[in-house]
C-alpha cells in the first residue's frame, strides 16, 4: 500500500502465481508488492499444469503459515551470473573473432547503476478472463475491467521508465461490489458438500474393500461363495449405488440453494433501489395531497 505502483489498486486476479524469495546474503533488495495471506501453500507446478483436479488440490492444501511474495520490486546493485565473461556457447555462436571480442569487451561483471526491476510471478495475469469482461456497448465490443491487472502492468512500465504522473491515479475508477453473502454461502455449501462427500466416499471405499476381500478369498481358496456371501455382495453393490445417488443429490441440493439465493440477492440489488424511490415518491405525493386538502379546507372556513 505504501508503494505508488500499487497504492491505488483494489483487486488483482492471479490464476497460477509463483512466489519469490530473497537469496541469503544478496546485495539487492526484494520489496514485496503483492503477497498472500499467511493461510497459503505452494504446490508443484506440474500438479497444477496437468489438467488439475480442484478437489484433489484442495485436499492436498496445507497452510504453511507463511506469507509468499507474488510480485516484488528488485532494487540495488546486481552482478552478472557469468562473472568470467559471456558463456562459451554464446561466443561460439558469433560470426567471427571480431564479434566475439566486441561481445567480451561489452560484458559487465557488475551493473554500472542500481537496478529497478518489477518481478511478477504470473504470466497469465493479462489474460482477458482474469481482469476484464467483454460486453457489447452500442454495437461495439468493450472490455470492462473487473480487476486492476492492466493498471498494475501499465503502472509498472511507467514506474521503471521514471514517469510517475498517472501512476497514483490508475485503479481509482474500478468499482467492485462482490455479492459477499453469496460468496459466504457458496463457501459454506462447499464445505458441507466436502464433508458429506468424504463421509459417503469413505463408506463406499469400505464396501469396495469388503467385496474385494470376499472375491480374493474365493479365488485363493477355490471355494465358491455361499449364497449368503453372494447376497451380502449384492446388497453392498445396491447400497453403493444408493450412496452414489445420495452424493449426487447432496451436490445438486447445495448448488440449487446457492443459485436460489444468488437469484434472490440479484433481484433485490436490481429492484430494491427503484422500488424504494417509487415508494418514497408515492408517500411524498400522498403527503402533499393531504396538506393541500387541509389548506383548502382552512381557506374555505
Low-confidence stretches: none
Count the helices. How many? 8
Tell me the series of helices and strands, N- to C-terminal: EHHEHHEHEEHHH
The counted number of beta strands is: 5
Give Rg in angstroms.
Answer: 32 Å
What does this structure look like?
The chain is mostly helical and 301 residues long. Among the domains are: 29-77 and 114-161, no CATH class; 180-271. It has 8 helices and 5 strands. It has helices at 45-49, 54-60, 88-92, 97-106, 128-131, 149-161, 180-221, 227-300; strands at 29-35, 69-76, 115-120, 132-137, 140-145. Strands 1-2-3 form a 3-stranded antiparallel sheet, with no helix packed on it. α7 packs antiparallel against α8 (227-300). The chain starts with 28 loop residues before the first strand and ends with a helix. The mean pLDDT is 81.
Task: Give a topology summary.
Elements: E1 29-35, H1 45-49, H2 54-60, E2 69-76, H3 88-92, H4 97-106, E3 115-120, H5 128-131, E4 132-137, E5 140-145, H6 149-161, H7 180-221, H8 227-300
Antiparallel strand pairs: 1-2, 2-3, 4-5
Helix pairs in contact: 7-8
What are the defining features of this structure?
two-stranded antiparallel sheet; three-stranded antiparallel beta sheet; 301 residues; 8 helices; mainly alpha
Give a quick precis of the structure:
The chain has about 300 residues and is mainly alpha-helical.
